[in-house]
Structure formats: structure tokens, C-alpha cells
Amino acid sequence: MEITEDGTGATRLRTAIRDQWEELSTSERAVAQYLAGAPVEQLLFASAQELGTASSTSNATVVRALQRLGYAGLPALKRELANDFTSAVAPEVRLKQRIAHVGRDLASIWTDVFDEARERIDQTQRLTEPDALKRAVTALAEAHEVFCYGIAASEPGARHLALALGRIGRRARFVSETGFALADQLLALGQGDAVAIFQPGRQLVELTVMMERARAVGAKVVLVTDELGEAYEDQVEAVLTAPHTPTGITAESLTGLLVADALLLALATLDESRAVDSSHQLTALREQLLRPKRRG
């Protein structure tokens, strides 16, 4: 059993299949054999249902086989394979392959998008521990002001969190500067504040500087990420997992936005009167802005 493209993710899959082969059921072996022989790009774009059909099993069997092999689910396997695939294949080539996979069948396109979104959402729900969520909510609830940081594809989650925090009566600011410009924002970070960082996988120097600044002034950090949990878990209050897209079929910001929504709802329930009062004031201000101008 050999993977078509060799690489770190492919090697890990091959090793897992070899090590766990005797522990797999007959149907799980069928899944493993298919995974071992399929091209990486084919696995990246396949849903659990498609893999079940291709291996003459079922989507439930695919999920069980992957878990037996040590993966949290199909998105976890795709993420490992994608790391090697995206570094070796040019973006325009990946786009062509993505288009070739979905074809022009609108029903297939619709299904592919929702299948990947569902897989990412399910994994987001499974991978964040309740204790981590509790620590994150506590850190933000106790904060004098929350600095919400996100750049590029991570910007929507951070911007959404900052805006919605203000709407439930909590002080927050959106931060997206990089390089020297970030220093001015970090200067305002003080004791009793919190930083919510949205960054899926790249270890930017800005993250290190922000965390060091937070530690120096006595601010807490919540990290919303996909791959950086282990690297920064000792430097932050909590890590919330938001898996990114291995294919580009769904928006990178999808899971980060959902994590932000969970935090917002939790914070609103902790201080219902503040949230309701702020909502009332916001509505009143909007109504004033919508009033027709009086003619002189």
C-alpha cells in the first residue's frame, strides 16, 4: 500500500495504516486501502460520503477508520496532506484542480461546499475542550478592554468579535496592523485587558510580540487557531481550535466566526442586563439616524 505523493502528511498516513492494520475491522481496512492508493489531491476534495462510496463502505465507517488511525476526523487528515500539497503546487494549479474536481454541475458544487463546511464545523465543535472555552470566556468577561487581532483571512473573525462585543456593552477594539504600526496599538494594552488573536497556522513575529507585551503588562491572551495550539499553549489563557480549509472550497474565516459567536453568546448570558441595555441604546441610536431630515 503506497500513497501516490510522498510527503510528511502522506508518510504519516502510510505509517498509521501499517501500525494499526491488525486493529482495523474488515470495512475499516477497505477504507485504509483506498486512502493508501488515492492521489493526495483526490483525498483533499473528497467528502466522507464520497470516500465511503469509493471504498464500498459508508461515511460513518470512514470516520471510524480515520479515528482508529489517529485522526480527529477527515478535516484533520486533509489538513496534514494539504500542508505538503500546497507547498509543492502553485496556487493557480490548485485552483485548476479545485475547479476540475467540482466541474460545472451546480448540484455537485452546492453539495461540495456544504459538505466541507459541515466537516469543518463538526471538527471545530469536537476539538475545543469545555475547560478551554470556560477559560476563554472568563478572560474576556473580566477584561477592561479586549483587543481583537486578525489579519488577511483571519480579519473577519477578529473584526466581528470586536464589533459585537461593543454591541453587548463591552469595550473592544479591532487590531490588524503588522510591523512597526502594531507597536502603537500595543502601547495601549494594559493590565486587566485581554487579547483575542485569530491566526490559523503561521507563526508571525507579531504573535510573539503581542504575547510578550500582554505578559509584561498583565493582560490575558485567548488564541483562536488551527495549528498553533501546541506552540503557544503555555503563553495563553486558552486555545480555541478553528480548523482552516484544506481545499479553499469554503471561506477561511468560517470557523473563526463561529468561535467568535460562541464567545459572544456566552458573554451576553453572563451579564444579560448590560447586553440588553446596550442593545436598546444601539436601536435608539439607529432610529435617530434613520429619521428623515427636517427641511428648514
Physical arrangement of strands within the biggest beta sheet = 2-1-3-4-5
How are helices and strands ordered from N to C? HHHHHHHHHEHEHEHEHEHH
Q: What is the 3D form?
A: globular
* Largest β-sheet summary: 5 strands, parallel
- Poorly predicted sequence stretches spanning 5 or more consecutive residues: 1-6
Number of E-type strands: 5
Beta-strand residue percentage: 5-15%
Compute the average pLDDT.
87
Rg: 22 Å
Describe this structure in words.
The chain is built from 15 helices and five strands. The protein has a five-stranded parallel β-sheet with strand order 2-1-3-4-5, sandwiched between helices. With 296 residues, the protein is α/β, with parallel strands linked by helices. The chain starts with 7 loop residues before the first helix and ends in a 6-residue tail after the last helix. The model is unreliable at 1-6 (pLDDT under 50). The chain has helices at 8-20, 26-37, 40-45, 48-54, 59-68, 74-88, 91-102, 106-127, 130-141, 155-167, 181-187, 205-217, 229-232, 254-270, 272-290; strands at residues 146-150, 172-175, 194-198, 220-225, 238-241.
